[in-house]
Amino acid sequence: MQALLDNLRQLIGAQHVLTDGDLSAYEHDWRKRSRGKSLAVVRPGNTAEVAAVVKACAVTGVSIVPQGGNTGLVVGSTPDDSGTQIVLSLQRMHAVRAVDAANLTMTVEAGCILQSLQETAANAGFLFPLSLGAEGSCTIGGNLSTNAGGTQVLRYGNARELCLGLEVVTAHGEIWSGLSGLRKDNTGYDLRNLFVGSEGTLGIITAATMKLYPQPAAQLTAWAAVPSLEDAVTLLGLAHQHLGAGLTGFEVMGQFALSLVAKHYPQQRVPLYQDTPWCVLLENSDNESETHARTQFESLLELALEQGCVTDAVVAENLAQAHALWHVRESISLAQAEEGLNIKHDISIPVSRIPEFVRSTDALLQANIPGVRLVNFGHLGDGNLHYNVQAPAEGDPAQFLRAQEERVNTLVFDAVIAHGGSISAEHGVGSLKVGHLEHYKSPVALEMMRGIKQALDPQNLMNPGRVVQVGNAGF
C-alpha cells in the first residue's frame, strides 16, 4: 500500500494525497449514519490525473470511492471501515469549461457546485433548472451519479434529462470523451444514460454538458391549503390544465412536517398549516409577463376554491415572499433532524395511487408501532414522496432506530411495491438500499445490471457494495 501512496503522490502532488489529520468530512456520510476509514483521500485536479489515479489503483487492486460534495442520503460516497479504499474527491475539478449560447448548453467539471452552475447560467442570461436543498454544497457529478431530482422535475426532468454529454474515466483508467452536446446522436448504445444514475460503480464522471433554458419572464409562487391528498391530486390536474408547461413546481407537505418547521424555526412564518391536513406549494413560470402569470394563477385558485379542493391560498407578492415560502419547504428535512433520529424513505408512486398509499401505510405503521409520527412531504407533481418515520415523542430515538428500522422499511417498501412504486426515487441506492434491491427488484433486471457491472468493472473496484451486489472477485 505504501508503494501505491508514493506513486499517487508523484502523480498528483503529495499535498493532494491526504492520509493524516481530520478526514471526517470525507469519511462521514452526510446523515452521520456511517463512518468509514480510507487508505487515503486523493484530490486530482484534472481528468488526466483522475485517469492516472484509476490506473494505479487498478494495477494494485485497490478499490475507489468517487466523491463530490458528499451530501448523499444513502451512504454511497464514503469508504468502508477497512482502511483499504481510496476516496477520490473531485472537489478541485470545479471549472466551467464553456457556455454555448446558441446550443443552449454549458460544459462543466464534475466538482462544480450546483449553485455555481445556476449562477453561471443566470449571469449568461439563461436558466439551469436543477434545484434541491443541498445545492449550495452538492456537485454536478454527484447529482448525475444519483440522477438527482429536486423541485422542478415536473417541468424539466431529472438530472438525466438535463444532461447531453459526459466525460468519464473508466474502471481501466481510460477517458471517454462524450461532451458533444448533441441532442440527436443515434450511433449505438446510450452510454451517457448508463453512467448517469450508476453512483460511481461503472466509472467516474469528470465533466458534463448540461442543457440551458431561456429565463422565464416571470416566476410566481402560491401556497394553498387542501383538505386531503385526493384534493391535492385534483388541484394538480387543474394546474396542468390551466398552466400547462408553466407549472414548474408542485410540492405537498403534511401538517406534522410543517409543524416541525414552526417548532424548530419560529422565525419562519408557516402559512395556513394549523387548520388543514395538507398544504401545497405551486410555482408558475411564465414566458409572457408577470401580469399574465398572476392572472393565470388567480384564475386557477379561484376555480379550485369553487370546486372545494382548496380551502385557502396565498400568492407571493414579490420575490422575497416567494423565497420565504420555498424556504419553509426546504427546511422540513432540517427541522426533522432537529426533532431527532428518523427513518427516511425516498419513494415514487403513480400520482393517482399516492392518496391510498399514504392512507393505508400511515394506518399500518400506526397500528404496528404505537406513537410513531409520520413526516410526509415531497414532489407530488412527479410522484416522489419523502415518506419519513419519526420516533415516538416519548422514548429513546436511537433505540427506536435499532429496534424498528428494518421492520419499518419492510412495511413501507412492501406497500410501495403493492402500489406500483419504486423504493428509490431520487436519492439512489448506495449501500443503505442495496440489500433491499435483491428483494424488490426484478431478478432479470438484477442479472442484467450485474452483467453491465462485470463488463465495465471486471475487478469490482469502482465503488463496490453500492447499487448492485456482486462477488469480490470474478463475480
Characterize the structure shown.
Residues 34-215 form the FAD-binding PCMH-type domain. It comes from Rhodoferax ferrireducens. Belongs to the FAD-binding oxidoreductase/transferase type 4 family. The protein has helices at 2-12, 24-27, 47-60, 114-123, 140-145, 153-156, 159-162, 191-195, 229-243, 255-264, 290-307, 319-330, 332-339, 354-368, 397-418, 434-440, 443-456; strands spanning 17-18, 38-42, 64-67, 85-89, 96-100, 105-109, 126-127, 163-170, 175-178, 203-211, 213-214, 218-226, 247-254, 278-286, 312-315, 342-343, 346-348, 373-379, 384-390. The protein contains 17 helices and 19 strands. α1 (2-12) packs antiparallel against α3 (47-60) and α9 (229-243) runs antiparallel to α11 (290-307). The protein folds into four domains: 2-89, Uridine Diphospho-n-acetylenolpyruvylglucosamine Reductase, domain 2 (2-Layer Sandwich); 96-214, 2-Layer Sandwich (Uridine Diphospho-n-acetylenolpyruvylglucosamine Reductase, domain 3); 218-332, Alpha-Beta Plaits (2-Layer Sandwich); 340-418, Alpha-Beta Plaits (2-Layer Sandwich), CATH 3.30.70.2740. It is 38% helix and 21% strand. It is globular, with a radius of gyration of 23 Å. It is of the alpha+beta class. The mean pLDDT is 94.
